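Supplementary Methods S3. Complex input for the zinc ion-bound model.
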Amino acid sequence: MPEYPDVTVYVQAIEARVLGQPLEGVRLASPFLLRSAIPPIREAFGKRVRGMERLAKRIVFALEDDLFLVLHLMVAGRLHWKEPGAKIPGRVGLAAFDFPTGALTLTEASKKKRASLHLVRGREALAAFDRGGIDAMSATLEQFTAALRKENHTLKRSLTDQRLLAAVGNAYSDEILHRAKLSPVRLTGQMSDEEVTRLHGATRAVLEEWTQRLGAEAERGFPEKVTAFRPEMAVHGKYGQPCPVCGTKVQRIVHADNETNYCPTCQTGGKLLADRALSRLLRKDWPKSLDELEEHIAARAMPAAPAASGAAPAAGATRARAQGKPKART
Ligand SMILES: [Zn+2]
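Predicted complex, serialized as structure tokens:
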């Protein structure tokens, strides 16, 4: 986060405000933001903006004299358009980019300051930031297939791998997989041609729709509400809410910092995928389907059933629990 649609709209919104304007200065509130020393940041001062570009998830200011300011927002970096000379907000404020038309301020609402800024000279130096992922919108089916089949991983991992596909992250990969009706843990090496074609179409459709939606919002003002969680999303951030296609409750797989959301009915043939938080709770008794989860929740809501055979394998244990339910009621 921010991903393809958000970064594209940022680039458009900034370009509309600063194209042809000189970058009068950059005020740095955090010493950690600027990660490059040569050329010094002062070299950029006074240079006009020749264009704004998106390089994967990075925002690039193409300046006169072949200079490029490269901004990576990471997870929590956000941009704001203020009046000329506006103060950098305290605590979350990292920098301000000053133009005659206004000040573009950068904030990062996170304890971990991960956003980064580099100044480089020349297209070759700029290309060093390219991690090699194909552009999801312009890639042909052949390029998309080749990128996806380069390595054998789960779809969730491959879609969010910047070396394979540029600018797709946790939020839009959930939306793309839901649109394509594919499981986040499907292995790319096992996908049929038909599935890859479906995924290619879904990737383009989802990114295009969201870029248009966010672009329309940005016509009313600078994009101030950039978030990975939007009410119009189908499954991302919608754990426990009904899938807009089939009404099944959206499920999740919890990772370290975030979670993957999916609809079991639309994407996994009703199968539930291992959720670490949930599976710790359930230990070996991991529900393999929605029906079993419903049973499990029902069983947990009741007084403990008498223990069935402790040596029963997982499937047997589930049966034992199901059979144990009526006993628990008595
Ligand atoms: Zn569904």
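Residues 282-290, 304-330 have pLDDT under 50 and may be disordered. Residues 243, 245-246, 248, 263, 265-266 surround zinc ion (CB under 6 Å).
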